[in-house]
Design goal:
Layout (H helix, E strand, L loop, with lengths): L8 E5 L11 E5 L2 E5 L12 E5 L4 E5 L10 E5 L2 E5 L12 E5 L4 E5 L10 E5 L2 E5 L12 E5 L4 E5 L10 E5 L2 E5 L2 E2 L2 E2 L3 E5 L4 E5 L6 E2 L2 E4 L5 E8 L8 E10 L4 E2 L16 E5 L2 E5 L12 E5 L4 E5 L10 E5 L2 E5 L2 E2 L1 E2 L3 E6 L6
Antiparallel strand pairs: 1-33, 2-3, 3-4, 4-5, 6-7, 7-8, 8-9, 10-11, 11-12, 12-13, 14-15, 15-18, 16-17, 18-19, 20-22, 21-22, 22-23, 23-24, 25-26, 26-27, 27-28, 29-30, 30-33, 31-32
Length: 354
């Protein structure tokens, strides 16, 4: 299938947030985008919840979360949003779990985690949530894998990961959960492991080629797992450096591609928005070696096997939250010196945006 050309991608500004926001969570139910929590301009966690209405290009306030939090793990279970852990107003990890019913417009407190956790990675399979790792109140990483059943409101422990960590990247393919990278206190880890839901066992895979953080993690159009850019950790006497390298893991072969088999991005960057839009991997904004935030955007063309520049974002920023809904990339909030209220959409020219 042909992919759109670079000149067909366009940005459009949408209704701004009521105030700057960072470390918020986005989720989509029935084609509608929900924004939950995050930190406001003062750096405090908020309990706000808002719905974006594209028909009138407005944000609508919904009932607030029972618990203010930032950096929460959020997944969709049917018509409900499950919100897990995160950081509360006192900058401490949370064990509170809450669910919002989008049809009833009501919040309900659910069974809590066994302990306070932040930096939890989460995914869903067959109507159940799987929460991996996290950092506890003692600031140490965890190896726990927990399964949540919404109907029974019960958390069940599954075999723990071989490598404790938080802020890991998690990807689901079939009945396997891939967990890569993450942190142990201030140290980055390059461990790469997979959990098989059928056999309920963990397996260690070849480690990531290097230790890096703030990368983009995507499945490409051939079903391979791609780590894009990021901040590469330096050695004992070396500083960390931004990278434009792309590392690709072939799940069918169980190995990483050689560097000469991959195509680096045009710009070194970290902490950027990343998504697949109309068959093309797209990266937008972030931080680089420049003194200011990036507004540059690029997309990988699978046929030409190269990265191409797209139109830049209107508002340069990093740490933005992003989501793809109906083949359109929405980038919300983030940081440009201070928390940003910007809200932009990347779409293909032939489409009507609103």
């Amino acid at each position: 299938m042909a992919v759109p050309a670079a000149h067909e991608f366009h940005w459009q500004n949408l209704a701004c947030l009521s105030s700057g926001r960072v470390y918020h969570s986005l989720a989509e139910v029935g084609g509608q985008m929900y924004m939950l929590g995050g930190c406001d301009a003062t750096g405090r966690a908020t309990n706000s919840m808002e719905l974006y209405c594209p028909e009138v290009d407005q944000w609508v306030n919904l009932p607030p979360m029972p618990t203010a939090r930032a950096g929460a793990a959020v997944v969709v279970l049917g018509k409900q949003l499950l919100v897990v852990g995160g950081v509360g107003k006192g900058q401490h990890p949370l064990k509170a779990v809450e669910a919002y019913n989008t049809e009833e417009g009501k919040w309900r407190k659910r069974s809590s985690l066994r302990e306070e956790l932040m930096g939890v990675a989460i995914t869903t399979k067959d109507g159940r949530a799987f929460a991996v790792g996290g950092m506890g109140a003692d600031l140490l990483p965890r190896s726990v894998l927990q399964q949540y059943d919404l109907r029974k409101d019960v958390w069940a422990l599954l075999p723990p990961m071989p490598t404790p960590r938080y802020d890991a990247s998690i990807c689901l393919q079939g009945s396997k959960i891939y967990v890569a990278g993450g942190r142990q206190c201030k140290r980055l880890v390059k461990a790469f492991e997979v959990f098989d839901m059928d056999s309920r066992t963990w397996s260690s895979l070849p480690s990531m080629p290097c230790k890096r953080s703030y990368s983009g993690v995507l499945w490409d159009n051939t079903g391979r797992l791609c780590w894009l850019g990021g901040l590469r950790q330096g050695g004992i006497h070396q500083s960390s450096k931004f990278t434009k390298n792309v590392s690709i893991f072939d799940t069918s072969q169980g190995s990483w591609l050689k560097s000469e088999e991959t195509n680096s991005m045009k710009t070194k960057r970290a902490d950027f928005a990343a998504a697949v839009v109309r068959g093309r991997m797209v990266v937008a904004g972030g931080l680089g070696h420049q003194p200011s935030m990036l507004d540059t955007v690029e997309a990988f063309h699978p046929g030409k096997r190269k990265w191409e520049s797209l139109a830049p974002m209107t508002t340069p920023r990093c740490s933005a939250s992003s989501i793809v809904i109906r083949d359109r990339l929405l980038v919300v909030g983030g940081v440009n010196q201070i928390p940003s209220s910007a809200h932009e959409i990347l779409y293909v020219k032939e489409e009507e945006v609103v």
